[in-house]
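Fold this sequence, please.
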Amino acid sequence: MEEPNYYAIIPASVRYDKNLLKGSTLLYGEITALSNKKGFCWASDSYFAELYGVDKRSIQRWLSSLEDNGYIKRIVEREGKQIKNRYIKLCDKNVTTLTTKTSYPSDKNVSTPSDKNVRENNTSINTTNNNTSRFESVWELYPKKAGKSNAKKAFDKAVKSGVSVELIKQKIGEYNQQIAFKKTDRQYIKNGSTWFNQAGWEDEYETGKPVRVTKSTSDPVQFNNRYDTVKDQYIKKFGYGDMPLPTMMPAPDNTHAWELLMAGDDELLNKLKEVVERNV
């Protein structure tokens, strides 16, 4: 009894051919798995469409892409106006010699996959394609593209554990802003594999964006606990010992900015000075 191959062959010439449609590469591997020793595959467009969960027009486009680039040839045998046989022939001799040694192909070589197998195959293929597509959309944003393979493994693991792709993109954006803000030399920018393996999306970055200073009465504890320290920093910087500060301290929008004020951050103290002079 004739049996199909249980492995696919995708040579480098096909894998790295940028002229091929994306689906064509995967389809080529399936054709090799279904081909006999002479390089013939009898699978129909419907078979491939069911296997990959796409319509027949997509399969026909993938086949045309392979044929136009010289990897396969579609052959139709006719008797009068009727089609007698239709099959696909591999054009790469190195591939055809590796396929299983079976007799000349017959219709029995190709059976329609069961619904269960098709669903499982489609789920696996679609999941893989989705993860690859999402990773590529993230990877193109990263500033130092080194260690892509290891970065993808860390990305897949993170997404599987529930990390949002949008969060990763946001944090890469913030890391890029920090690099620009600090004018970081390229040699000190983390390789992609390092950033992803260290879960860089969990870090906070100095983006250089100004923190607004506003007058607010919503958090008196914040003012009371920090007022004296900020006042000391203010007077130390500007020497306005005799000039009263507002009764309610002009407050930055976030706690981190308050900590910077208490530490004497020049940029925020200057902003505070502007607010004080407008309100005194």
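The first strand starts at residue 40 and ends at 41. Strands lie at 40-41, 72-79, 82-90, 213-214, 251-252.
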